[in-house]
Amino acid sequence: MLEMLEAMKTGDADVATAGLSEDLTTAIGTDAEEWWEGYDTSAKAFRAQLEVSGGLPIEMTDVRGYENDGMGWFEARGSVAVEGAAPAVVRMTGVLRREPDAWRVIQVHASAGIPNAELGMEGLPI
């Protein structure tokens, strides 16, 4: 997962998409429209975004991974800093599977933290 995150940061679409399993179910990004189902759709979207952006300005500082019997999962926290905008908190979770030659992502979800108050849920304990 660390290799895939670094590839997304540097814009290396080949390495980023190589980290996806052909059995990928869903990749969910931070934008409300970023809901891609299946390997072909997800890989195409990853590749297009990396080619246009030249790399995503992400810095994941807290990445943890776990595995059990050929399945793995991860959680990551960091920030995205687009030029001209304040850095935003980014969180990711995902599921990986050990395939014959590498660990590959079969589901991934990224989100940008939004304060509860912005969602009309003021006063909830955190």
Automatic annotation (TrEMBL):
InterPro entries reported for this sequence: NTF2-like_dom_sf, SnoaL-like
Outline the extent of the SnoaL-like domain: 3-114
Reading the lineage from the top rank, the first entry is Bacteria
Under Pfam families, the record lists: SnoaL_3 (PF13474)
Under which name does UniProt file this protein? Nuclear transport factor 2 family protein
Q: Which organism is it from?
A: Nocardioides islandensis
